[in-house]
Amino acid sequence: MTGSFAGYALDELRLRSVPLVPEVRLHLAEDATIFWARLQAEAGVPIAAPFWVTAWPGGQVLSRYVLDHPRTVSGKRVLDLASGSGLAAIAAALAGAAQVTANDTDARAMAAIDANAKVNGVEIFPLPGDLLDAEVGGFDVVMVGDGLYSPELAEMMLRFLLRQRAQGADVLVGDPGRGHLPQRQLRLLATYSQLDTALADAQIESASVFRLT
Questions:
Q1: Structurally, how many domains does the chain consist of?
Q2: Containing domain of residue 174, as a range?
Q3: What element of type H or E holds 161?
Q4: Angstrom distance (rounded) from CA 50 to CA 33
Q5: CATH number of residue 142's parent domain
Q6: Per residue in 60-116, pLDDT tens?
Q7: Full-model pTM
Q8: How many of the other CB atoms lie within 10 Å of CB of 70?
Q9: Are 142 and 81 spatial neighbours (Cβ–Cβ below 8 Å)?
C-alpha cells in the first residue's frame, strides 16, 4: 500500500485491539462501507470490497483458538489463506509458529498485512494471488478464517483445503455459521460468543473453529 495508508482520517481507519484477541492490534475501519466508498471515489472506478479493514468473526475465533492452543502452530510452517487484515497470521506468529505465510488476492490487503505485522512485532511472509487452483505445498498448518462465505467460493476453497490435508497439513477453519461448511468433513474444536460484532457482522452472535478431517 502507498504511504497514504497511514494518512486516512482517524474516523475511517484506526489502529485498535480486537476485543476477543487483545494481544493483536490492527488498522481497522470504523465503518467499512464508508471506507469502501472513499476508496472507490479516490480510484474513480468500482473496486473490490476492502475485506482487510474488518476483523471478521471467523478470523477472530481462529486467532483466539491458536493463541489459547499454541501447540497447534508452535514450531510449524503456517499458511493463512485469504488472510485479509492478517489477524490469524499474526496470532499464529505470536503463538510461536516457525514461519507464517499470509495469502490474499487483494494487493491492498497484502500491504495492510505487512503494516499490521510490523505493528505487532512479527514477521509474516507474503504470498499474493489466487491459490485455489495452484499447486501449493510445504505447510504444516493451513488456516482460513471466514473464507467460505458463498457456495461457489466454499466449493473451490474446500477442494484446495482437501488437497492440503492430503499432503499432511492440519487444516483449521474459522466460521460464524454462514451455512456453506461441509459439516461431515469437519470436527468442531471450539465455539466463542464474545465477539466484537461492531467490527464485522452485527447479526452474528458466535463463531466456531473446526478441523478438516
A1: 1
A2: 3-212
A3: helix 151-166
A4: 9
A5: 3.40.50.150
A6: 999 999 999 999 999 999 999 999 999 999 999 999 999 999 999 998 899 999 999
A7: 0.90
A8: 15
A9: yes
